[in-house]
């Protein structure tokens, strides 16, 4: 990526080669005719360099671009060479340009553009410069130095008609005082920023053109700039932005303080970032809404969306406009909007993309296809579609003895049993049992096996030992089996206390003979139709296509309450309908089966470079902090009613204990087989004895 940026920068240098060549020729000609920079139309003094460097360090900038149309026309390099060194010492990249070029910021995104407004400035050229800065706010921060004798009201008047917006990063420095009696500053006399705190309190703010009084601007300058406590030359810093770029009377002036050669930037108030500009002074915030009608069909708007909750969406807009002290202005669109083959959007999303509305007040799903044409606010909620079924008890067999423990747990228990077997076997082989002689291998292994089996079955220890090591093995084995047995019993109790449902997942529903349906000509049908690459959604669509006689969500939910019926619907819409038909009581029993493939994030759409995105996100954060967001999302997507039923213990069924009967039957069969084998073995032994004795056992 960095190599690509370097390549672009080199290409830009080649394009501007002719301009640089003419500058070298002029510089060489100037070098022959003069030895100083006195005849340069532009003179960058040490005081200006000090102010620019301190301002850049105060704003944490890395690149300074000094722009003036006279820099390359008469000045030569020796005049600016000393200033290069001063910028370099302060770890700042610096460029001197005749005009603004965006590619200068490819290698350093944090760039401040320094321009100078002289007494004979051209308002048309100055307006073009302001509009160019406004169109590249992602790259530039503008520091505008107004020289003495300039009509300040004309400067602010030009900025008022520019396309600056609320996220503009513009500071105007008005040069005040008299510099006739001041000596030239030494080179690189830079103050360290941050050693002193600036003035406290709220910075004075003015909307000069809102009051429609031409003298307001001059009064603002006279009150805050000309009364600054500084002897000699100082610069009055004023932060500027517009609340609405098309409203010329929305220009905001904010006094930051004064800079002089003695105090530097330490006396300035903090720069107001975009998140702090939360006062619109009753200027409008344009909101786009979609008309709420029941007549929208699949042919009218074929896109993946959720049904909008217009009433509760207004609560979001009320909070945002109140927090920003803005006036709400609404634009209504018949549809949400689609992207035409020519790349243009229509409907509400078209208004967002074309910046006709500041914020789309609709529940729009964040999909990758839309990120190229618009941006989104923080997520306001999650959208998911569910299948609603009546919970029915299952009569299938389940193994409650193996369910409590996973495979790893069972392996660890078996490993512990093996360790106990080895430990007890060694104890019997080396020490013996109850004080007798050590056991033989066969006796030790057999007694240890039965001992482990008895301990793990909570039947106690069948071995008595007088040795300390043997007692420790017995105690630790009994404690381990006590904990395991109690946990095992608790798990079985919890399993029996839960009702086993016949349908627990979407997969169980698809494998059953349940009828699956969805509302005809709804957003849910459009969603299923567009998701043909997802197997489960495709099965739901095909099975529901055969039962597409449901016209609304209410009818589908009522059918689901009768059993053997699954209804696919948007979660927050179905919940409100279910609460309505059940009168907010436990009149019906329905269960939600969430379809995980339909989980999406929902947010408000904004234009791709919306100046209000950070402010809207700040409002959403404030809503989360204050609990308003949770309250509104609860209204949008309420929870299903929780019926307060008495919790009773459910008795074990035969289907839950089939493992016991299997073990019992296996044991009986095994015992019978062993008895038969023992009987056959005894008969075989008797037959062998008779054969050895011969046919006449009593004859000698």
TrEMBL record:
<keyword id="KW-1003">Cell membrane</keyword>
<comment type="similarity">
    <text>Belongs to the glutamate-gated ion channel (TC 1.A.10.1) family.</text>
</comment>
<keyword id="KW-1133">Transmembrane helix</keyword>
<dbReference type="GO" id="GO:0050906">
    <property type="term" value="P:detection of stimulus involved in sensory perception"/>
</dbReference>
<keyword id="KW-0675">Receptor</keyword>
<dbReference type="GO" id="GO:0015276">
    <property type="term" value="F:ligand-gated monoatomic ion channel activity"/>
</dbReference>
<keyword id="KW-0812">Transmembrane</keyword>
<keyword id="KW-0732">Signal</keyword>
<dbReference type="InterPro" id="IPR052192">
    <property type="entry name" value="Insect_Ionotropic_Sensory_Rcpt"/>
</dbReference>
<protein>
    <recommendedName>
        <fullName>Ionotropic glutamate receptor C-terminal domain-containing protein</fullName>
    </recommendedName>
</protein>
<feature type="transmembrane region" description="Helical">
    <location>
        <begin position="473"/>
        <end position="496"/>
    </location>
</feature>
<feature type="transmembrane region" description="Helical">
    <location>
        <begin position="409"/>
        <end position="430"/>
    </location>
</feature>
<feature type="transmembrane region" description="Helical">
    <location>
        <begin position="442"/>
        <end position="461"/>
    </location>
</feature>
<keyword id="KW-0325">Glycoprotein</keyword>
<dbReference type="InterPro" id="IPR001320">
    <property type="entry name" value="Iontro_rcpt_C"/>
</dbReference>
<feature type="signal peptide">
    <location>
        <begin position="1"/>
        <end position="17"/>
    </location>
</feature>
<keyword id="KW-0472">Membrane</keyword>
<dbReference type="Pfam" id="PF00060">
    <property type="entry name" value="Lig_chan"/>
</dbReference>
<dbReference type="GO" id="GO:0005886">
    <property type="term" value="C:plasma membrane"/>
</dbReference>
<feature type="transmembrane region" description="Helical">
    <location>
        <begin position="657"/>
        <end position="677"/>
    </location>
</feature>
<feature type="domain" description="Ionotropic glutamate receptor C-terminal">
    <location>
        <begin position="410"/>
        <end position="667"/>
    </location>
</feature>
């Amino acid at each position: 990526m960095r190599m690509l940026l370097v390549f672009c920068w080199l290409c830009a240098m080649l394009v501007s080669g002719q301009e640089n060549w003419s500058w070298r020729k002029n510089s060489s000609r100037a070098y022959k005719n003069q030895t100083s920079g006195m005849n340069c139309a532009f003179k960058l003094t040490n005081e200006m360099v000090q102010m620019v460097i301190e301002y850049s360090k105060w704003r944490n900038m890395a690149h300074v671009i000094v722009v003036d149309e006279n820099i390359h026309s008469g000045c030569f390099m020796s005049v600016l060479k000393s200033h290069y060194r001063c910028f370099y010492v302060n770890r700042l990249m610096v460029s001197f340009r005749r005009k603004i070029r965006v590619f200068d910021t490819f290698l350093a995104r944090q760039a401040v553009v320094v321009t100078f407004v002289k007494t004979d400035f051209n308002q048309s050229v100055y307006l073009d410069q302001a509009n160019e800065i406004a169109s590249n706010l992602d790259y530039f921060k503008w520091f505008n130095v107004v020289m003495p004798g300039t009509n300040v009201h004309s400067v602010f008047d030009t900025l008022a008609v520019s396309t600056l917006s609320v996220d503009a990063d513009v500071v105007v420095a008005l040069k005040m005082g008299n510099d006739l009696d001041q000596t030239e500053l030494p080179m690189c006399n830079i103050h360290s920023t941050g050693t002193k705190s600036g003035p406290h309190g709220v910075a004075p703010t003015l909307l000069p053109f809102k009051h429609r009084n031409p003298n307001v601007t001059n009064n603002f300058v006279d009150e805050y700039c000309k009364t600054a406590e500084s002897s000699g030359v100082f610069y009055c810093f004023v932060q500027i932005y517009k609340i609405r770029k098309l409203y010329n009377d929305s220009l905001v002036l904010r006094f930051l303080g004064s800079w002089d050669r003695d105090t530097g930037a330490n006396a300035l108030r903090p720069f107001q970032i975009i998140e702090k500009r939360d006062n619109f002074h009753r200027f409008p915030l344009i909101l786009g809404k979609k008309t709420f009608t029941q007549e929208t069909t699949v042919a009218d708007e074929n896109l993946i969306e959720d049904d909008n909750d217009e009433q509760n969406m207004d609560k979001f807009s009320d909070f945002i406009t109140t927090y920003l002290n803005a006036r709400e202005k609404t634009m209504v669109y018949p549809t949400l909007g689609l992207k035409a083959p020519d790349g243009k959007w229509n409907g509400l999303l078209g208004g967002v993309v074309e910046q006709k509305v500041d914020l789309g007040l609709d529940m729009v799903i964040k999909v990758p296809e839309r990120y190229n044409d618009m941006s989104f606010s923080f997520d306001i909620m999650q959208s998911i579609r569910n299948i609603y079924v009546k919970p029915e008890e299952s009569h299938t067999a389940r193994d409650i003895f193996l369910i409590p423990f996973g495979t790893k747990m069972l392996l660890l228990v078996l490993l512990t049993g093996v360790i106990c077997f080895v430990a007890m076997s060694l104890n019997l082989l080396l020490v013996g049992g109850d004080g007798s002689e050590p056991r033989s291998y066969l006796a030790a292994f057999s007694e240890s096996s039965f001992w482990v089996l008895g301990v793990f079955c909570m039947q106690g220890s069948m071995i008595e030992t007088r040795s300390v090591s043997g007692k420790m093995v017995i105690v630790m084995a009994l404690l381990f089996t006590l904990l395991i047995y109690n946990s095992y019993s608790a798990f079985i109790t919890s399993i029996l206390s839960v009702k086993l449902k016949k349908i627990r997942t979407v997969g169980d529903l698809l494998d059953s003979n349940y009828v699956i349906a969805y509302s005809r000509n709804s957003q849910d049908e459009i969603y299923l139709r567009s998701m043909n690459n997802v197997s489960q959604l495709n099965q739901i669509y095909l099975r529901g296509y055969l039962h597409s006689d449901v016209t609304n969500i209410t009818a589908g939910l009522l059918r689901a309450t009768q059993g053997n019926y699954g209804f696919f619907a948007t979660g927050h819409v179905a919940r409100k309908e279910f609460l309505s038909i059940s009168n907010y009581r436990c009149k019906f029993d329905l269960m939600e089966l969430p379809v995980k493939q339909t989980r999406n994030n929902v947010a408000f759409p904004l234009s791709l470079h919306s100046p209000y995105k950070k402010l809207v996100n700040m409002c959403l954060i404030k809503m989360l902090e204050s609990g308003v967001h949770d309250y509104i999302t609860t209204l949008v997507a309420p929870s299903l009613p929780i019926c307060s039923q008495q919790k009773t213990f459910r008795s074990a069924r035969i289907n839950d204990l089939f493992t016991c009967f299997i073990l019992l039957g296996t044991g009986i069969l095994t015992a019978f087989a062993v008895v038969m084998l023992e009987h056959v073995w005894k008969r075989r032994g008797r037959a062998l004895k008779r054969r050895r004795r011969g046919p006449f056992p009593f004859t000698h």
